[in-house]
Amino acid sequence: MGTTHAPDFQASLFGLDEADDQADDRTDDRSRLRPLGDRVERTVLSRGAWVDVRRDWLADADDVLATMVADVPWREERREMYDRVVAVPRLLCHYGEGRPLPHPTLEAARDALSAHYLPELGEPFRTAGCCFYRDGRDSVAWHGDTIGRGSTHDTVVAIVSLGDPRRLALRPRGGGPSLSFTLGHGDLLAMGGSCQRTWEHAVPKVAHAGPRLSVQFRTRGVL
Ligand SMILES: O=C(O)CCC(=O)C(=O)O
Ligand SMILES: [Fe+2]
């Protein structure tokens, strides 16, 4: 009886049928990411804000960095952003909803982040902002990601860092002690809860730094 199903079972077990080839591709993408789970360390801030850090999340960070440097259509931009005019000495490229990301690991990262934060966030990550800090003079000034829903609603902004280590600093809006995390090649940092509206963050200039890229995953309507 059961023997009639045995060949199909075996084919899928050894990845010999079409559907399973696709499953293999997905597994391959995921294997470029190390597990999140209890490797994520949370720092609880004041006023309902928190920061999660998962060091060394991307297993193929070198490949993602090289591909992004070569393939992303980087643009120089100086503009009004967030709730004040900030200097934007860095290169940018925004991947809106539905636009394919420049590396399969980034697609896998977005999906893994959506799964990990779904219980808290209740919605998936949909967009990816990319930044290229060419050297220590490139930076982003103090701001919250408060264009759109980030100004009124809790959200999560999850950042993957690639290349030279840079400091991401945080301070409470209206004053108070700041803290910072030095983000290295392949690290993940997520700002959550009320962080975008009750705290500000910045990537300060430094005397010496090589190139660093960041990818910020956000939910719909948060910029
Ligand atoms: O590059 C980073 O790590 C932070 C970038 C950022 O805060 C932003 O683009 O809103
Ligand atoms: Fe930001």
Automatic annotation (TrEMBL):
Stretches for region Disordered: 1-32
Annotated Gene3D superfamilies: Alpha-ketoglutarate-dependent dioxygenase AlkB-like (2.60.120.590)
Xref: InterPro entries: AlkB-like (IPR027450), AlkB-like_sf (IPR037151), ALKBH3 (IPR032854), Oxoglu/Fe-dep_dioxygenase_dom (IPR005123)
Chain ranges of the Fe2OG dioxygenase domain: 124-221
An individual GO BP term: DNA alkylation repair
Keyword field: Dioxygenase, Oxidoreductase
Keyword Oxidoreductase: yes
Gene Ontology MF, one: dioxygenase activity
PANTHER family assigned: ALPHA-KETOGLUTARATE-DEPENDENT DIOXYGENASE ALKB HOMOLOG 3
Protein name as catalogued: Alkylated DNA repair dioxygenase AlkB
Species whose genome carries this gene: Nocardioides perillae
